[in-house]
Design brief:
By secondary structure, this protein is an alpha/beta fold. The chain has a 10-stranded mixed beta sheet. α2 packs antiparallel against α3. The longest helix is centred in the middle third of the chain and has 13 residues. The protein starts with 19 loop residues before the first helix and ends with a strand.
């Protein structure tokens, strides 16, 4: 894997970048959706495209070109490619894997609002993403039924305002940063107007896969809200953190948001000590705290990504012996009905 350039510390305040407000949308519109095009761009066996087309089902290929540019040409086993290329293995039926492994539909308390843990509520603002990760636990999630719509969001805001136990609102999806800055600002203002809400958390893969999304206006939205703000990004492999991503993360940090990263432990992608250690080091150098390392959520079509729990525990123990404590993510599994993530190790 080629070296990924690192930005020096300290992180710089956001610099004006002309036309970013539209650039990320153009980049998204130009994302690769055809497996044959992806194989041609990377110079890999075109027969993989035929397999990918058969394997996509209702969950098609979608990957921005800026993310493809970080892949190793000619390598069908590239760890970034494996996260997005559909494989025939996805069509296999495996016991223990289901459409809703986290039973989130059971946790819906109103349209678009999932409440699993005390003091927090998760607001589904869209079912769309900028990249279709093949291991996604919501790849079969019924967004329309869940109320992840504009009307559902309005009902959810009313429900949040009526529930004084909710201190933190988590924007999720899909990817909440697919809302443009105007719509996002209106939503943040509405949440900020609810007196008992103290924190805003945004879970997004866009700063990693489409760093142009971190616009001046996005930084201003996060900087100007009264809410304490946490942005949780999602990188699984150090090659995802190129210079453009690190610049975007630096701009987010300048908004005063706390930056955390969560990863999923994936066979063939990041299930090695060297990879996990390098990922944590590059995150720290980018001003991001490694937060969670998730065991795979067992959704249909993802069994080939699963790393056995005993292997995960051994890797995590080695990681603790290799890195300072603040650079070691918590190894967790999400179990429906539990009051919090289950810590392992």
């Amino acid at each position: 894997m080629p070296a990924v350039p690192l930005l020096p510390a300290p992180l710089l305040p956001p610099q004006p970048i002309a036309s970013h407000g539209q650039r990320w949308q153009r980049e998204l519109a130009d994302a690769v959706r055809d497996p044959l095009e992806l194989c041609r761009v990377l110079g890999i066996d075109l027969s993989l495209a035929d397999q990918a087309r058969l394997a996509t089902g209702a969950f098609p290929l979608l990957v921005p070109r800026s993310f493809i540019a970080r892949m190793q040409p000619g390598d069908p086993g590239d760890p970034l490619l494996l996260q997005v290329l559909p494989l025939a293995k996805e069509q296999e039926s495996v016991a223990g894997f289901s459409a809703d492994p986290l039973a989130e539909m059971d946790a819906l308390t109103s349209p678009g609002l999932v409440k699993k843990y005390a003091g927090r509520a998760l607001l589904l603002v869209t079912g769309a993403c900028a990249i279709n990760c093949r291991y996604c636990f919501r790849r079969e999630f019924p967004y329309a039924e869940s109320g992840a719509t504009q009307a559902g969001i309005q009902e959810a805001i009313v429900a949040i305002a009526a529930d004084a136990t909710i201190r933190e609102v988590i924007l999720s999806g899909g990817d909440p940063l697919l809302l443009d800055d105007e719509r996002l600002e209106k939503l943040v203002v509405k949440i900020g107007a609810i007196p008992h809400v103290r924190r805003l958390r945004i879970h997004s893969r866009l700063p990693i896969v489409l760093p142009q999304r971190v616009t001046d206006s996005l930084v201003a939205i996060l900087a100007n809200t009264r809410l304490a703000t946490v942005v949780v990004v999602h990188a699984n492999h150090p090659a995802e953190l190129d210079a453009s991503v690190q610049l975007a993360l630096g701009r987010l940090a300048a908004s005063r948001a706390i930056l955390l990263n969560q990863s999923v432990l994936l066979a063939g992608v990041n299930d090695s000590l060297d990879t996990l250690a390098m990922l944590s080091e590059r995150l720290i150098e980018s001003g991001v705290v490694p937060y969670y390392l998730h065991l795979l959520d067992r959704v249909h079509g993802t069994a080939h990504f699963e790393v056995p729990e005993n292997v995960a525990l051994a890797l995590h123990a080695s990681l603790r012996n290799t890195l300072p404590g603040y650079a070691v993510p918590r190894l967790v599994r999400e179990v429906p009905g539990e009051p919090a993530k289950v810590w392992l190790g």
